[in-house]
Amino acid sequence: INGYRTNGSYISMVEPGTTVSAFKSHFALSGNASVVVSDDSGASYSDGDLIRTGANVTVFSGQNVIGQYRVMIYGDISGDGSIDIVDFAYIKSQMLGQLNLTGLRAEAADIDGSGSVDIVDFAYMKSKMLGMLEITQR
Questions:
Q1: What percentage of residues in the chain have a pLDDT greater than 70?
Q2: What torsion do the CA atoms of 113, 115, 119, 123 make, to the nearest 10 degrees?
Q3: For the sheet containing 64-71, what is the strand order?
Q4: Hey, is 122 helix, strand or coil?
Q5: Using CA atoms, how far apart are residues 110 and 131, in angstroms rounded to an integer?
Q6: pTM of the predicted protein model
Q7: What is the DSSP letter of 78?
Q8: For residue 109, which of 99, 96, 122, 127 has the smallest C-alpha distance?
Q9: Which pLDDT does position 7 carry in this prediction?
Q10: Cβ distance 70 to 9 under 8 Å?
Q11: DSSP type of residue 6
Q12: Geometric angle at alpha carbon 108, from 105 and 111, rounded to 5°
């Protein structure tokens, strides 16, 4: 996978706003290999859809599954493929104790990679909302 990082079951370093078509172009496929991107219900995304946190990526060689991953976009907590005010609201609610982010959402909210969702992540997200910072994908 050219330009992306795989870490166990995740694919990261995907920029927000990346389409499925652009995402798939990073895979070096040969023969009858293919990549399918789908949601949790198994519905495939179309090429023009945005890649989002939580998207399922399955790599096939013919009919055989040779790899399965989930997409991780840091800052895309809502899983809509962009980093916006909804994601900011998730972190704010976490900081106020109104929400307990877990799993992929908690991973996506850990913008600084410290291992927890904290005030630093909140500050990064606030700076992103104010146009002062771009969240670096890692």
A1: 100
A2: 10
A3: 5-7, 10-12, 64-71, 56-61, 33-38
A4: helix
A5: 19
A6: 0.94
A7: S
A8: 122
A9: 86
A10: yes
A11: E
A12: 140
Query: pLDDT averaged over the chain?
Result: 96
Strands (E), the chain: 5-7, 10-12, 33-38, 56-61, 64-71
For residue 111, count other CB atoms closer than 10 A to its CB.
Answer: 26
Q: Which residue has the tokens 């798939």?
A: 24
H-assigned helices in the chain: 20-24, 85-95, 103-109, 119-129
Residue 127's identity, in one-letter code, is: S
CA dist 63 and 29 (Å) reads: 14
> What's the token pair of residue 63?
């009919």
Instruction: Residue 117: name the closest of 81, 93, 134, 137 by CA.
Output: 93
Q: Cα-flanking dihedrals φ and ψ of residue 33, to 5°? A: -75, 150
Q: Environment class of residue 11 by beta-carbon count within 10 Å: exposed (0-12), middle (13-18) or buried (19+)?
A: buried
